[in-house]
Amino acid sequence: MRIPDKYISPFTDFGFKKLFGNEPNKDLLIDFLNELLRNETGEITQLTYLSAEQLGRSIDARKAIYDLYCENEKGEKFIVELQKAKQNYFKDRSIYYSTFPIQQQALQGDWNFKLNAVYTIGILDFVFEEDKHDHDVFHHEVQLFDKSTQKVFYDKLTYIYLEMPKFTKTETELETHFEKWLYVLKNLEDLSKRPARLQEKIFEKLFKQAEIANYTDAEYTEYETSLKIYRDLKNSIDTAFDDGKLEGRVEGRAEGMAEGMAEGMTKGRAEGLAEGEQQALLCTAEKLKKAGVAVEIIVQTTGLSVREIEDL
Q1: Of the candidates 308, 228, 169, 219, the residue with the CA atom closest to the CA atom of residue 12
Q2: Are 297 and 271 in contact (CB under 8 A)?
Q3: How far apart are CA 173 and CA 182, in angstroms?
Q4: d(Cα 94, Cα 99) in Å, to the nearest integer?
Q5: pLDDT one-digit tens code per residue, 166-193
Q6: pLDDT surpassing 70 at residue 12
């Protein structure tokens, strides 16, 4: 018999937003980003959460829905994405998402085109297919690069991908504060207590916020729903990739692909979605809404808009 989890999984929508996506826990996100980006940005002292839903410049343009989107005191933008399962064109999507904070910096009238830096961070619960035989490099930092000079050509656009399955250090092997963060992200759900090596105050707070026993009944229900979505999603999508069955079909948000949650959801919410699939998404959203799941979680899960969910 499986012992009930003591701590939430950061790889669920509920868990990630609970730990990093609200004002009371902003210091957790700041500490993590400082460990990840200090060499690039210097010390981040303040963050402002921005709308996670970004619209294109025209009514017909596509939109982006980030897991987290924030800005530091220097006006630099940070997109933080938690990717639960393999997805075709994930790199393409992360590049596309980064164009929104770039375009938003355009000023009316006479403008010199000076831009603030944009950082796109992907915390991945999978390994890139092209990197699956490289077991050593899990931390990818990508910038525009001049092949002729072997130097960075432009340093204001940075993409960071963390392939978490490749991080295999045990508690006794942890050396840096950053490694402790990676260890927590990967293992939190399976821990029964705070490890002896993670005694810093920031981790004391994280473990307190992650303890399921501290949640209300509504929060627990929301977490359980989010956990089921995550597990169904990962099992169905990863299995399909391993069996070679997807063949480019997984192009929408991975959060909309949990086959066990609804009929037709494995294709995401691409344009031209068949009417039957649309109805399946609406049906799933209605069930989640009746279960008391937060609207933002339903948006992340189904790809439907807030208005569509509110109208149910």
Answers
A1: 228
A2: no
A3: 12
A4: 9
A5: 999 999 999 999 999 999 999 999 999 9
A6: yes
**Taking a C-beta distance cutoff of 8 angstroms, is the pair 269, 281 a contact?**
yes
Question: Can you tell me the distance from the alpha carbon of 187 to that of 166, in angstroms, rounded to the nearest whole number?
Answer: 13
| CA-based nearest residue to 84, from 246, 245, 255 | 255
The residue extents of the domains of the chain are 1-214, 215-312
pLDDT at 27 over 90: yes
Q: DSSP label at 267?
A: G
Closest CA to 205 of 11, 9, 26: 26
Angle at 164 between CA 140 and CA 102, to 5 degrees: 45
Helix (H, G, I), strand (E, B) or coil at 183: helix
Question: Is pTM, for the whole model, over 0.70?
Answer: yes
Rounded Cα distance, 263 and 277, in Å:
7
pLDDT tens sequence across 34-70: 999 988 888 999 999 998 887 665 545 566 778 999 9
Q: Which residue has the higher pLDDT, 304 or 123?
A: 123
DSSP assignments along 120-161, one per residue: EEEEESS--GGGTT--S--EEEEEEEETTTTEEEEEEEEEEE
